[in-house]
Write a structure and sequence with these properties.
mainly alpha; 0% strand; Arc Repressor Mutant, subunit A; 125 residues
Length: 125
């Protein structure tokens, strides 16, 4: 059995590879395993030992990047979808709704309201 630090390091490495490969093409377990010099089955087993799986990690990375890209601004939804490895904007919209319960546009509006209210609190005389 591995100690907690080495296994969390493993998951972090998988997440990093997934994050770096997203805009090229949707990463697959086989591709990530190959990059880590593992078999696909070993990758799946080690992730299972960590209490997760490849699909969950891919989804988490996409969610985090989607929020970061939205906050960054300057990208349309089609461009954002491609950066996250989706072929269509509608797929991103459905995934975003699953993650947050709202569309990307509504989430962005809410994030901007939150930023504005925080900014107003900071600049109060």
């Amino acid at each position: 059995m591995r100690d907690r630090n080495s296994t969390s390091c493993f998951v972090r490495k998988v997440r990093l590879i997934v994050s770096n490969r997203l805009c090229e093409c949707p990463p697959s377990p086989g591709m990530v395993a190959g990059e880590m010099s593992l078999t696909k089955r070993t990758l799946q087993r080690r992730l299972s030992e960590e209490g997760t799986n490849f699909s969950t990690l891919l989804d988490e990375v996409r969610c985090e990047k989607a929020h970061a890209f939205l906050l960054d601004g300057g990208r349309d939804m089609g461009q954002l979808a491609k950066l996250l490895g989706y072929k269509q904007q509608s797929t991103l919209t459905r995934a975003f709704h699953r993650w947050t319960g709202a569309s990307p546009t509504n989430s962005l509006k809410q994030m901007n309201k939150t930023k504005t209210s925080i900014w107003r609190e900071k600049v109060k005389p």
